[in-house]
Design goal:
The structure is a single chain. By secondary structure, the protein is α+β, with helices and mostly antiparallel strands. The chain has 51 helices and 32 strands. Helix 6 packs parallel to helix 10, helix 12 crosses helix 14 and helix 31 runs parallel beside helix 33. The longest helix is centred in the last third of the chain and has 34 residues. It starts with a strand and ends with a helix.
Length: 1506
């Protein structure tokens, strides 16, 4: 065959084949090995029975009908481990595989077949044959793969071992198997057949050696059996009409064929004669027999030498006939197939084709055709080239170009460069076919990141982005564009190296019936597809592309054919000049969250094409390598050269076409080709997650990328033409045609392919934690079995949005089912399925040609929204919206109003859901505002009421339930209320408030038409009720936003009185809970008509709130009434507060008591101050009614109905108010008592000032104060509460108590009462400075000083206080010496002593009487003598006063009593000497006094006689 080759297809990775979870099992040692170990022998066998592995090997065994595919792999790095996968074309790629660990290394052989129908097949339906390099054969009865779990040892009753070395010592060189039979070929050319299905090597017929039994060999036996054939190189077993035959290839080029039933050789022929000289046979492949043909193709791999390793494949045709005897004959050698590049890994044969997989590609040849076009190789590109291109690692796609292009595009917003670069590289890594879980794990391991495959498979896009971002930080790289670029460049290099090592091709699987081809790689699997037509142009086959599509493009002649060819050459030249990185930037700009548009990217790329460079200031090239600088200069030269050549080419193209109109016609024909094909057929088969479906999605991503790149390239080209229109002599009509027709057309195509590419490459998101609708769907309630597994795939990196659309819609690609769903799709059917799938994404599942694609986009968005893919739905709908807006600008497509409303509605739902689940802070607010705008737009369309009714309620949002016949205002009213409710449900009060206000604007118009022609209107409420409800909602939302002024204004605006009352009460409650009650008193709220209601609500709230709650509502009422200048009511509320403080608060400690009493003092003081502002005639308040209610925490928000007892109590209170009131005097009395209690609390003394009747007893409180030495407060109470004799009595009692404290041996009546056991406060007490300044204690530390201070201060209220004090002291301690200041008070009662002992109540006579009564005779005599002497020795100026009648007085009775007491003392023999002395002194003083009186009387009489 010729050496020409044509690229006809590419590899398509099967999604999920790289993320298999392996169940680990291990096998025990063979019996012989176990015996050797137990005996202590460790010597290895003399030689290996089978050559060890040098490469990874894999193959497939097909069993059953419908077929099951068992894929087995053996890696050279782990030669004792066999991996098994069980595949079915009718289901998805298996998640679980079986990994069996053998005691010895395995040969490159495994065979699986289905057991015959018996009892054992129920649990073990399959049998596995495996041969180790030591010659031990294993027969394993297999269950289904999913039935295994990871255990330590394989079940012993399902495992059988056979040591083949016991039958021959010759090394085994090849092995093959069929059901029940294992055939081995040895180094000596012998062939043995083992019936392993007998399970007993002692049974006759267990082993049979295939040999010639005719002629002389039978006579001479073993000695005559000379070695006529060489070493067995390869064995292949095939069935011909139910008879198994083994094909044997020997090293000397001989092929033998043996009948395994009769053990007879039926064919033997040497091949060296027909083969090229200098080559040796290596491998043998034989096609499956075709019952419709008598030819069996077979192929032999021949190699020239080990050093050169030049390989070729020789193909033969074996003819067979079946009759009484099977006859086989070899046909002539077909043209050989040289393998010029790459090493042959596997070959598969069908009846007319040969498939060859090399390490650099796959190719197939037609075997029995002589046509030269058929002879040439049809090649399929492997995935390595695709991965290298996507990772910017090939020569045509340098990442250096990417860096400086990004800097050029984001020259005005440099802060977006680093996120854009990071996202671009990350998105490339996550592309289907590029992402490989095990490769990613190994790459992260290079950066010391330990990740398991399970952890990686659970990562989302954002999670992986975060992890790689942490790698950048761990590497110590700065977050600059250059550092990020170099990190990704190094990361991609490591990743691709691991990808190539872990995905080497190992084997092929060919399905002759359908033509499906499966590539088995080391750690994944793939299908193959034919190339799309557009991919031919991408490969540079422009002529073939144009020739192939000449009918489809509608080219009328060779002239248009040539024009289009030249146009495509210009487009290709432009693409090569920019490099393929431009498409990556364009796509990232379209789908990323950056603020750059497609037009911005295109304009910057055109600027690069025209100028040839970018300013050096845009990128820090100084930080880059010298190679980068050289590349920049080279790019500059190439672009300048391109600019010149392009102008010349365009002039030549214009001359060839004679006008630009023909060129534009050719361009338009090409543009029409890029439009996704619309398939006008119904695709109503329910799709499941089949392997073919996964391959179709993957293939769609490849085709969509090529189509998107082509559309972007032609867009760049026509824009380039516009920029050069003046230089290339383009007419104005042509310019207008480009602007108004071609550019919008291309933009539509770009949008369509962008949508397709986005859906098939973007990983799905995990549903939000709070996303109830997605959680409910994940329960699989009433779901079909085919759909119960794919919900768990949400969030997996390999589960793209396209799978959600396929699984959620009753769609399928029929081309995958042309032959049978039991087989893998062939390359032709796979690309046909891609065309159907892309057409369905854009046009939908319809047989109506005129169906609107916008409606289908809305259905796609609704599907994504229903499954929690909010960001994806937003991107999809945003692209569609931008496209529609562009169409309306250029074409005014007003007929899509209804579908446009649906689009806006769904877009708003997506934005709202994202704001709820995925964005914090400013981004969340931005999403909310965008959603609000979308909802307003959705309601503005003429057909909105009709189209939005048809939406499914599966979005998780409340359904829109309204008749289609309502008026526009009624519809908007209903829709705005719906939007208000959904925003309220998501706690977005700002947006809900906007819609509530918008709904209010529609009420009047909607209600005015209710009785008109719109009979379908369902507005059954009155306008006032609707407005009241809406204003209540506005009130609630503004209150949630803490906009209290606006909330109050909504209360005023509410026309519904009942609703207004409820809102007002809620307003008070919220202000109270938030501590914002001051707004009611700062004068900012207009109380028009609501002041009394506010007061009632505040009072109602205050009555039902615990008195200690903060903020205090009584204080607020006081401030509220003071602000209204209602002084009397203000005093009433604040006084009620003090009363409740006294009655309800439970005292916990002294500090608490002090605060409570101080609060009561302040309250009473505030009431007094308020009443001082009132006219004295009205300066009183009503006493608060004491309600006998058990106050509990948490009162209901609604006012409770009054009970009968409450009514009676209220009537009783009214009668009491008529009889009693509280004026200023009573308030001041209470203030004084409270102040006294507060003073005691500061001293940590508890006061029990309540009498038996439950009223406060001032006398008892005074006693406690005196006992605590708090005299000022005690005297304040006495002066306030007592007058006249009562005041004198209380003063005497206080001073008596004070006097007792001066006596060390006092006996007080106070000790038996008012003595409390006080527990000092745990906290340090600090008295208020006000109280300290109010009650100053006298200086001095003694009780005498205190007594002197207060007796001098309060003697003016009771002149007899010194007498009371002196009497108390003398009676308490008869021997006490009265202080001088006290005695002096008696003596100072009258300064002029000429009048004797006269004076005030506390005079010398009173002191004398006290002395006499208390037995203080000496002090009494001395006092009397002192006064008598003073009386006698007066100054001349006072002599006349003494001589007046009745001028002097002495207590004669007391003196007489004193005389008697002295005589009694003498008589009773007590203190006789002292008494006699005192008697004489008294006698002398009295004698002198009496003589003086006689003289004065005589003088008075003499004076009277004159």
């Amino acid at each position: 065959m010729g050496s020409r080759s044509t690229l006809v297809g590419v590899e398509v990775p099967i999604t999920g084949s790289d993320s298999v979870k392996w169940h680990e099992l291990s096998l025990p040692l063979p019996v012989s090995r176990s015996n050797a170990i137990s005996s202590g022998s460790s010597s290895p066998p003399p030689w290996p029975q089978f050559p060890p592995l040098t490469d990874d090997c894999a193959s497939c065994c097909v069993v059953g009908d419908p077929p099951l595919y068992f894929i087995w792999r053996i890696h050279k790095t782990h030669p004792n481990v066999l991996e098994l996968l069980e595949l079915s074309a009718e289901s998805e790629f298996p998640k679980i595989g079986l990994r069996i660990t053998f005691p010895d290394s395995l040969s490159s052989f495994a065979h699986i077949h289905q057991n015959q129908q018996d009892g054992s097949t129920l649990t073990n339906p399959y049998t596995l044959y495996v041969l180790t390099v030591s010659g031990v054969a294993y027969l394993i009865k297999l269950r289904t793969i999913s039935a295994y779990s990871s255990t330590s040892v394989f079940p012993g009753d399902e495992l059988f071992q056979f040591d083949l070395t016991s039958y021959s010592n010759a090394p085994i060189t090849s092995v093959a198997a069929s059901a029940g039979c294992l055939v081995v070929g040895r180094n000596d050319g012998s062939i043995a057949c083992f019936r392993l299905s007998l399970l007993n090597h002692a049974v006759p017929g267990f082993v049979n050696e295939l040999r010639d039994d005719s002629g002389i060999n039978r006579l001479w036996g073993f000695m005559s059996r000379g070695r006529t054939v060489g070493t067995v190189l390869d064995l292949v077993i095939r069935e011909l009409h139910g008879v198994p035959f083994v094909f044997v290839l020997h090293s000397n080029g001989v092929i033998q064929i043996w009948d395994l039933l009769s053990h007879n050789k039926i064919f033997s022929q040497g091949m060296n004669v027909q083969n090229p000289e200098g080559t040796t046979a290596v491998r043998l492949w034989v096609s499956e027999a075709n019952n419709q043909s008598d030819r069996i193709p077979l192929a032999i791999l021949r190699r020239k030498s080990q050093e050169c390793s030049t390989e070729m494949i020789c193909v033969y045709s074996l003819h067979y006939g079946l009759g009484d005897r099977t006859t086989l004959s070899l046909g002539p050698l077909l043209p050989s197939i040289p393998l010029e590049e790459g090493r042959c890994l596997d070959v598969k044969l069908s009846s007319d084709r040969i498939w060859i997989i090399k390490d650099n590609g796959l190719a197939f040849h037609y075997i029995f055709h002589t046509d030269i076009d058929v002879k040439e190789a049809h090649c399929y590109a492997l995935q390595e080239d695709f991965v290298a291109e996507q990772l910017f690692l090939n020569a045509e796609l340098s990442s250096d170009d990417l860096l400086w292009m990004i800097h050029s595009i984001f020259s005005s917003s440099k802060e977006q460069i680093v996120p854009f670069i990071f996202s671009t590289f990350l998105r490339r890594l996550l592309l289907p076919g590029v992402l490989h879980c095990n490769v990613l794990r190994l790459t992260l391991l290079d950066y010391n990141k330990q990740w398991t495959e399970t952890e990686l498979q659970s990562l989302t896009f954002d999670g992986l982005k975060k992890e790689i971002g942490s790698l950048v930080d761990d590497e110590g790289l700065g977050r600059t564009s250059v550092s990020i670029y170099y990190f990704w460049k190094n990361f991609f290099g490591r990743y691709f190296s691991h990808w190539c090592k872990n995905n080497t091709p190992c084997g092929l699987l060919i399905q002759p019936l359908t033509g499906g081809v499966v590539l088995i790689r080391k750690d994944s699997m793939s299908l193959f597809r034919n190339m799309a037509n557009i991919e031919l142009m991408a490969e540079g086959c422009l002529q073939e592309f144009v020739d192939l599509l000449k009918p489809e493009l509608g080219l009328s002649g060779d002239g248009e054919h040539a024009i289009l060819l030249e146009v495509l050459k210009c487009v290709t030249s432009m693409s090569q000049s920019l490099g393929k990185t431009a498409s990556a930037i364009l796509y990232e700009g379209l789908v990323s969250k950056s603020n750059i548009s497609l037009e911005d990217v295109v304009s910057q790329l055109l600027k690069i094409l025209q100028t040839g460079c970018i300013p050096s200031s845009l990128v820090p090239f100084s930080d880059l390598s010298a190679d980068f600088d050289l590349g920049k200069e080279s790019n500059h030269k190439n672009l300048r050269k391109f600019s010149v050549n392009m102008i010349l080419s365009l002039h030549a193209l214009s001359r060839k076409a004679n006008s630009w109109g023909k060129v534009l016609n050719a361009i338009e024909s090409y543009i029409q080709f890029l439009v996704p094909h619309k398939i006008l057929q119904s695709l109503d088969t329910e799709e499941s997650l089949k392997i073919g479906t996964a391959a179709m999605v993957q293939a769609t991503s490849q085709v969509a990328q090529a189509m998107l790149v082509s559309a972007l390239e032609i867009l760049l080209f026509v824009k380039y033409l516009l920029n050069l229109s003046g230089k290339i002599n383009m007419l104005h009509a042509d310019i207008s045609r480009i602007q108004l027709e071609l550019v919008p057309m291309i933009q539509d195509i770009v949008s369509e392919w962008l949508i397709i590419y986005f859906l098939v490459t973007t990983p799905s998101e995990s549903p939000g934690i709070e996303d109830f609708s997605c959680q409910l769907s994940s329960l699989h309630i009433d779901s079909k079995n085919g759909r119960r597994s794919w919900h768990d795939k949400f969030g997996k990196l390999d589960f793209t949005l396209a799978f959600i659309l396929l699984m959620s819609n009753q769609t399928s690609s029929q081309d995958l089912n042309h032959h049978s769903s039991h087989y893998f799709p062939n390359p032709r059917d796979l690309i046909s399925a891609v065309q159907h799938f892309t057409g369905w994404i854009i046009w939908g599942n319809t047989t109506v040609e005129s169906n609107s694609p916008l409606r289908h986009y809305a259905e796609l968005g609704l599907t994504l929204l229903r499954h929690g893919q909010y960001y994806a739905a937003e991107c999809l709908l945003s692209v569609v919206e931008a496209n529609i807006q562009r169409e309306k600008i250029f074409r005014s497509l007003q007929e899509n109003d209804g579908d446009w409303c649906v689009l806006q509605h769904l877009l708003g739902c997506c934005l709202l859901a994202q704001a709820r689940f995925g964005f914090p802070g400013i981004l969340k607010e931005r999403k909310i505002y965008e959603a609000i705008r979308c909802f307003f737009r959705a309601s503005s369309g003429e057909l909105a009421s009709k189209t939005l009714q048809a939406l499914s309620h599966d979005t998780g949002l409340p359904p829109l339930c309204l008749d289609d016949s309502v008026s526009s205002a009624a519809w908007k009213l209903h829709y705005y209320q719906w939007a208000m409710q959904i925003l309220e449900q998501y706690n977005f009060s700002e947006g809900a408030c906007q819609f509530a206000l918008a709904a209010l604007e529609q009420v009047d118009e909607a209600m005015s038409r209710r009785d008109g022609s719109h009979v379908g209107c369902t507005l059954d409420e009155s306008a006032v009720t609707i407005k009241g409800r809406l204003w209540s909602n506005v009130f609630k939302f503004t209150l949630d936003l803490n906009r209290f002024h606006d909330a109050y204004c909504t209360i005023i605006s509410n026309p519904d009185e009942e609703s207004k009352q409820i809102c007002l009460r809620r307003f008070i409650i919220v202000l109270y809970e938030l501590g914002a009650m001051k707004i009611l008193c700062d004068g900012t709220l207009p109380f028009t008509g609501l002041a009394d209601k506010i007061e009632r609500e505040l009072a109602w709230k205050a009555e039902r709130t615990t008195i200690t709650a903060q903020p205090n509502l009584y204080k607020l009422l006081y401030a509220f009434e003071m602000h209204r200048q209602n002084w009397q009511r203000a005093a009433s509320y604040i006084y009620e507060y003090s009363v409740r403080l006294k009655n309800e608060v439970v005292i916990t400690d002294h500090q608490h008591l002090s605060r409570l009493l101080q609060e009561r003092m302040n309250s009473i003081s505030a009431a007094i101050n308020a009443l001082h502002l009132v006219n004295p005639e009205y300066a009183w308040i009503e006493p608060p009614f004491e309600k006998n209610l058990n106050r509990i925490e948490g009162y209901p928000h609604k006012r409770a109905k009054k009970t009968e007892m409450e009514h009676l109590a209220h009537d009783h209170a009214l009668s009491r108010k008529e009889q009693s009131y509280i004026d200023l005097d009573k308030l001041q009395d209470q203030f004084v008592l409270t102040s006294a209690e507060y003073t005691l609390s500061l001293a940590n003394i508890e006061s029990r000032s309540t009498g038996k009747a439950g009223r406060e007893d001032p006398s008892l409180l005074v006693s406690i104060l005196v006992q605590a030495n708090l005299y000022d407060m005690a005297f304040t109470i006495i002066l306030k509460y007592y007058k006249g004799s009562a005041l004198r009595r209380e003063l005497e009692r206080i001073f008596s108590a004070m006097s007792l404290k001066c006596c060390p041996n006092k006996i007080s009546s106070y000790t038996e009462r008012n003595q409390l056991v006080l527990i000092p406060s745990e906290e340090k007490f600090q008295s208020s400075p006000e109280m300290g300044s109010m009650y100053q204690q006298p200086n001095g530390n003694s009780h005498w000083a205190t007594l002197e201070f207060y007796i001098r201060k309060y003697k003016v209220f009771h002149a007899g206080l010194p007498v009371n004090v002196a009497e108390t002291l003398l009676r308490t301690d008869p021997h006490i010496e009265l202080p001088l200041w006290l005695v002096q008070m008696f003596k100072d009662a009258r300064q002029d002593r000429t009048f004797g002992m006269t004076g005030q109540e506390s005079n010398a006579a009173a002191l004398l009487r006290l002395y006499v009564d208390c037995g203080r005779h000496m002090e009494a005599v001395n006092l009397l003598v002192e006064y008598i002497d003073s009386f006698a020795t007066v100054r001349p100026s006072n002599l006349l006063n003494r001589k007046k009648p009745f001028a002097a007085w002495f207590p004669y009775s007391t003196i007489e009593l004193l005389w008697c007491r002295l005589e009694d003392s003498i008589t009773s023999d007590r203190m006789i000497d002292q008494s006699e002395k005192l008697k004489r002194l008294l006698h002398g003083a009295l004698h002198s006094y009496l003589r003086l009186l006689k003289v004065d009387n005589d003088d008075a009489l003499a004076a009277a006689g004159r």
